[in-house]
Amino acid sequence: MAGKGQLSPSAIMLSTHANIALYSLAFWIQQAAVPFLLQKWEASNLAFGYLQTMFAAVQLLGGPLFGRFGDLYGARLALCLAFGASGISCLTVALTDGLFWMFLSRLPLMLVHAMQGGQMVVTDLSDPLKRSDSLAKLGISYGVGMVLGSLSSGFIIKATSEHYACFIAAVLSFGSMSAVWLTIPANLKASPVMSKSSTASSSADDANEAGFKSSSSGAKVFDLAKFSEFLVKNRRTRWLLAVKVVTGIPIGLLQSMMPIISVKQLGATPQISGIMMAYVAVVSMAVQGLGISVLTKRFSDSLLLTVGCAILTAFLGTQIYYLFVCILPLVIGLTLINVLVSSALTNAVSLEDTGSVLGINMSINSVIRIASPTLGGLMLDNLGVWSFGFLGSVNSALVAAYILRAHLKRV
């Protein structure tokens, strides 16, 4: 039962899903506007590359700090920070002109980790045994926003302008910030949901919140000892993060070069690119909404991780001539791995450290995005498209074999 004046856990979950969908909607509306603005300003391809690298770099710096901030001060404040920073970034683009301001608008994105904040809420409110399913359903909400944002952005830009589209994205972000503040409790880690007490009173909630503030006051956001614990001392988190890196590198390289491959080798038009983006979102939503829920009830996470790696192995080995055919297994395998690794990481640490470990997990994506454009370009120029499939097959096969071996030992 929720405390006095506090929403029930199901209502908090609903609010989180709605705000993640709005965040995704705003993000993809702005993402669609940025290339057209750069084209208007006659920015070079190199400038676009620098902009992408800067985005990945600030996300890398902010991910672990954002997670630690959420552990110390609560998911509500962390989400408000993320949505507020997103609104500032969109508003900067909407109200200004020129490449300098575009680069400046990337700086607030260091704090824009709304999906990570949503995962904190879901982790705090969900049963550890059902966490994979809960995290997967959060991905559906993000996918809904992605589809709507991708489809509506073109109409908005055509009817108004790129600047107005970014202004709409800013309004959505600030609206989510207000909604989070009003609907999500200050501290979910000390909530009755996590303590399994269904009759907690408002006075108990107040005492929990006071203890939460007291315990966090002596800690610090930038805690190298805490981060090194996950990377060095905790064997389970170290292994899971290694799986994320090894399987994520080939996918990151392929994603960074996908626009060039699709246009130069497959002759994809802008319309096909838009349909492909929506296709990826729909497949991802289907896997997270139906596949994860059914599979996690019948099979162990380690076995499903093996299957995910095996899927990547089977289909990354072919050359990419039929993009839509290849995307299907890629998305299925990648979605399985991402959801299961995130869930396993939160179960591998104490409740007080779930935000921090999710932050490190998110940072791996940023590291890969920083290195991928350069490495992917070198591979494409010197080796060809087949090299992406070969690297992915080898990496995924090694991980799948290792996980299967460990699983069979336990059986």
Verbal overview:
- The protein is an all-alpha fold and 411 residues long.
- It folds into two domains: 1-185, Up-down Bundle (Growth Hormone, Chain: A), CATH 1.20.1250.20; 223-411, Up-down Bundle (Growth Hormone, Chain: A), CATH 1.20.1250.
- The chain contains 16 helices and no strands.
- Helix 1 (9-40) runs antiparallel to helix 7 (162-183) and helix 13 (301-316) runs antiparallel to helix 14 (323-348).
- The longest helix is centred in the N-terminal third of the chain and has 32 residues, at 9-40.
- The radius of gyration is 21 Å and the shape is globular.
- The CATH architecture of the largest domain can be named as Up-down Bundle
- Coarse morphology: globular
Q: What can be said about the biggest beta sheet?
A: none
The domain count comes to: 2
Cα distance, first to last residue? 40 Å
Question: Low-confidence runs (pLDDT<50, min 5 residues)?
Answer: 191-217, 316-321
Order of helices and strands: HHHHHHHHHHHHHHHH
Report strand %. under 5%
CATH hierarchy class name of the largest domain = Mainly Alpha
Radius of gyration: 21 Å
Summarize the amount of helix as a percent range.
over 70%
CATH topology of the largest domain: Growth Hormone, Chain: A
Annotation field: number of helices: 16
Instruction: Round the mean pLDDT to the nearest integer and report it.
Output: 75
